[in-house]
Amino acid sequence: MIEKLQFISNQTKEITHLESIQTALDAGCRWIQLRVKNQSFEDVLNLAEKAKVLCDSYQSKLIINDFPFIAKEINAHGLHLGLNDMPIETARKIVGKNMIIGGTANTFEHIVKRINEGADYIGLGPFQFTSTKQNLSPILGLEGYRNLIKSLKELGLSIPIIAIGGITQEDVAPITKTGMYGVAISGSIINSENPRNVVYKIKKILC
């Protein structure tokens, strides 16, 4: 099952990827995506192994961003691929039939492509500006989400779509009203004075 609240790991001057994951797990997140950029395969593998142990101790699911061989190596729950990563069909041959694979999309054409590739869910964004991602694509906002969901329905297409990109607790209710399946959040949880309270309120809206 695809979780409706997904946490994306982040590293800043104040916090490491593993510390951000620990904060999210303590707060009640049970779907964790390890997203590490600009580091070597060995460094990401090392981080992924530690993140897997951490997530397992909370009975939580770990998704690895970008690295199918690492996802397979550590027996992750899933793999997430960006638009510039290898095609989902190719990754599927590496990780096997049972691993969940999600894919990023920024446009209607991307969504249809991901569905045709066999994605299990889609991360669609950016909802609004976020400092956690470089080379940001055009912002979609509520109107963008509404229009894309409508276009999919007109074609009779359906897939769990997760909103991503600068989402705060206050954005969750209006986003769900557009027809989006769930949300992916990072900064709003790790920067909160009370992450547990933020996660509780978001889950209450989503479930």
Notes on the protein architecture:
This protein has an 8-stranded parallel beta barrel with strand order 1-2-3-4-5-6-7-8, surrounded by 6 helices. It has 9 helices and 8 strands. The model has no long low-confidence stretch (mean pLDDT 95). The longest helix is centred in the first third of the chain and has 17 residues, at 41-57. The radius of gyration is 16 Å and the shape is globular. With 207 residues, the chain is an alpha/beta fold. α1 (17-27) packs parallel to α2 (41-57) and α7 (169-177) runs parallel beside α9. The protein has helices spanning 17-27, 41-57, 68-73, 88-95, 108-117, 141-154, 169-177, 187-190, 195-206, and strands spanning 5-8, 31-34, 61-65, 78-81, 100-105, 121-124, 161-164, 182-185. Helix content is 44%, strand content 17%.
Give a topology summary.
Elements: E1 5-8, H1 17-27, E2 31-34, H2 41-57, E3 61-65, H3 68-73, E4 78-81, H4 88-95, E5 100-105, H5 108-117, E6 121-124, H6 141-154, E7 161-164, H7 169-177, E8 182-185, H8 187-190, H9 195-206
Parallel strand pairs: 1-2, 1-8, 2-3, 3-4, 4-5, 5-6, 6-7, 7-8
Family: Belongs to the thiamine-phosphate synthase family.
InterPro entries: Aldolase_TIM, ThiamineP_synth_sf, ThiamineP_synth_TenI, TMP_synthase
GO molecular function: thiamine-phosphate diphosphorylase activity
